Amino acid sequence: MADGLRKGLASYGDAGFSLFLRKAFIKAMGYSDDALNRPIVGITNTYSDYNPCHGNVPQIIEAVKRGVMLTGAMPMVFPTISIAESFSHPTSMYLRNLMAMDTEEMIRAQPMDAIVVIGGCDKTLPAQIMAAISADLPTVVIPVGPMVVGHHKGEVLGACTDCRRLWGKYRAGEIDDVEIEAVNGRLAPSVGTCMVMGTASTMACITEALGLSLPMSATIPAPHAERFRSAEASGKVAAAMAKAKGPKPSELLTEASFRNAQVVMQAIGGSTNGLIHLTAMAHRSPHKVDLATFDKLGREVPVLIDLKPSGEHYMEHFHHAGGVPKLMAQLGDLIDLDAKTITGQTLREIVAAAEDVPGQDAIRPRDNPIKAEGAMAILHGNLAPRGAVIKQSAASPKLLQHTGRAVVFESVEDMTLRVDDPDLDVNADDVLVLRNAGPKGAPGMPEAGYLPIPKKLARGGVKDMVRISDARMSGTAFGTIVLHITPESAVGGPLALVQNGDMIRLDVAKRSIDLLVDDAELEKRRASLPPAVTPDWAKRGYAHLFNETILQADEGCDFDFMRGKGKG
Ligand code: FES
User: Counting CB atoms within 10 angstroms of each CB, which of 32, 259, 265, 268 has the fewest?
Assistant: First the structure.
């Protein structure tokens, strides 16, 4: 196969002319023939004025280019979509598959022998890795790194577990307008991704466990000099991979590496979103992430990382304690250490070199875990025939077995309008139910599963309630919250049948979530559901594609034609 600039010529019916034309145009940039004859390393640029998490991308790109050139290859930077969590309407999840398609097609369309993808804000690494697996070109992933922590009144704080905690205090009247404004300026003190174990940190750790990024790359803070040295080293690795034409994702990613990623996700107190993304990534390959295996691992793998929202520390503390290599060292035989990485080393070699940091308490040993069981549990029952997930490590232990009366919200809008209504019939033992917030329903499965505690209860000191939905939740959130109920209500899942006042039983030890209404009554309710129609928002464009082809949460919410070898 052709390589370098000769790869993937534009079709003019004359290959010689196509190359002649390509070189004629690219020389307008001032490149020499020597440069153009080198192996090419493509580098994605996801910098955007809308994406503060990626604020260090220009500096990372410079460092990667340096590494590529020091190794005798040619770096070529190109833009792709960038997705910033709080600047993505209707949701960032709605755009993940678009970014995956954009990235994959630009990798395919342009000549390159290896690719460096630089991402971090929640949906970007999943989209880029999904693309890399499908394009199957030698790939190095560089997470942009977490923000450094902020401080407020002597307290360490950060985005966005503390955003929610302090906003909850503001709603409860414990913090006034002046203080919440001060907090607003201190939650995100630098560029980089959220510095708790949210989705961005989860995906960065998983990426390192999969062997797709350099050791320690998940945890180095975004502004640190070490971040840019790691980027330079990543550029060197990518150039070596471009020359060697491998290893490709298909040569690196095995059943064992996806299992390793699940073990790490459980052990870090990872984000529930990570499960959807890892499932989507695996479905792009010949491998699978299935909920039963994930739940079984959750019973065997303890939470060892003491990070918010499951624990106390932040990503920079995890980094200074030894990062993912040290975590994998502690996990020992729970990890398949023979798995290979982009560096050519096995995880065993990387773990052997993990730093031992005396006195650190962010990474616990296995005999002194944060939680004896993993972060997440998979629930089934008549409310969730294809599964639901709960982040039990960030839930209230006393609510993990709970039966309560349903208080139903029809949509995110309905919930927003009514949740604080003083006349809402709700008490602390009730179960808040949100529906029509799944992959199709909202659309894009918003992170609305963290339903706020109704103001009148919050002001009375209620900090947590059982909340269930077909929505997602930010990895930075906490509480006794059942998410991803599948199938979702918008496609006729049983969540659509719940009525106010029904009793709902949650039993995490038994892994069950049930609506305590008899089958005959449920059938009657099902028969009276309105027929499915294409909503107005889905009549054209990307929205149409999304609505027609989006898969449910248990299949990773990819488009049905993007998995493995495609549809059919
Ligand atoms: Fe970008 Fe949290 S908002 S990682």
Answer: 32
Distance 559 CA to ligand 1 centre (A): 24
Mutate to test the pocket of ligand 1, among 50, 53, 88 (most ligand atoms within 8 A of CB): 53
Q: How far is CA 380 from the centre of its chain?
A: 23
Cite the DSSP H helix spans in 210-290.
225-244, 249-252, 255-267, 272-283
- Ligand 1 pocket, CB under 6 A: 53, 84-86, 121-122, 159, 193-194, 198, 200
- Report the predicted TM-score, pTM, of the whole model to 2 decimal places: 0.96
Query: What would be the CATH architecture of the domain defined by 380-530?
Result: 3-Layer(bba) Sandwich (3.50)
Please give the number of the atom of ligand 1 that sits closest to the Cα of 476.
Answer: 2
Architecture of domain 38-148+190-352: 3-Layer(aba) Sandwich (3.40)
> Among 57, 162, 191, 193, which residue has the most ligand 1 atoms within 8 Å of its CB, making it the best to mutate?
193
Atom of ligand 1 nearest to the CA of 122: 4
Cα of 53 from ligand 1 centre, angstroms: 6
| Alpha-carbon gap, residue 462 to 465, rounded angstroms | 8
Question: Distance, CA 418 to ligand 1 centroid (Å)?
Answer: 28
The per-residue pLDDT string of the chain (568 residues; one tens digit each, 9 = 90 and over) reads: 689 999 999 989 999 999 999 999 999 999 999 999 999 999 999 999 999 999 999 999 999 999 999 999 999 999 999 999 999 999 999 999 999 999 999 999 999 999 999 999 999 999 999 999 999 999 999 999 999 999 999 999 988 888 988 998 998 899 999 999 999 999 999 999 999 999 999 999 999 999 999 999 999 999 999 999 999 999 999 999 999 999 999 999 999 999 999 999 999 999 999 999 999 999 999 999 999 999 999 999 999 999 988 889 999 999 999 999 999 999 999 999 999 999 999 999 999 999 999 999 999 999 999 999 888 999 999 999 999 999 998 899 999 999 999 999 999 999 999 999 999 999 999 999 999 999 999 899 999 999 999 999 999 999 999 999 999 998 778 899 999 999 999 999 999 999 999 999 999 999 999 999 999 999 999 999 998 889 999 999 999 999 999 999 999 999 999 998 888 7
Number of Cα atoms under 13 Å in the Cβ half of residue 200: 33
CA-proximal residue: ligand 1, atom 2 (nearest)? 194
The strand pair at 74-79 and 139-143 is best described as unpaired
First to last CA, the chain: 29
Q: Where are the domains of the chain?
A: 1-31, 38-148+190-352, 155-184, 380-530
| 85 CA: nearest ligand 1 atom | 3
Beta-strand relationship, 114-119 and 40-45: parallel
Distance 85 CA to ligand 1 centre (A): 6
The DSSP H or E segment spanning 315 is: helix 315-320
CB 179 within 8 A of CB 195: no
